[in-house]
Design brief:
148 residues; mainly alpha; de novo design (two linked rop proteins)
Length: 148
Amino acid sequence: MTASRLYDENTLSGMSEFDPYYLDKTSGELQNRSASLARSVRAISHKISECSWVDKKLVDQFCRAGTSIGANVREAKFSESNRDFLHKLKIAEKELGEFFFWLGLLNSEPTLVNEDLGRQLFNDAMAVRNFLRAAILTMRRKLNSSSS
């Protein structure tokens, strides 16, 4: 089972019908991928938590960092200015960095996260990272050109 397959494929971006912002098919690739990543992280965290000897605080941090990326991307959608938008994307980028730390730590124990699942989750997160960096770079250019 791959990380992106841990939720119902019939649900857009892995979000429910109770989330009108993600039911909109024009939400954007960054929002959709970060929502999918959050769903995968949540599902994996739940499975890992079932292990009796695992450090629950570590799993909690992994889950918090992995799900907050999408939440911060969502906040950026409702930013009050271009600078606010950039700030919220930078917070999402920081959370992604923390997520990679926790993923690496969990992945060092093969009985918690098998190599294939860890690799798929890493690839999904790298895709989010690429879209996130592109959005940050685009906004920085826009802000620099408007201040000139």
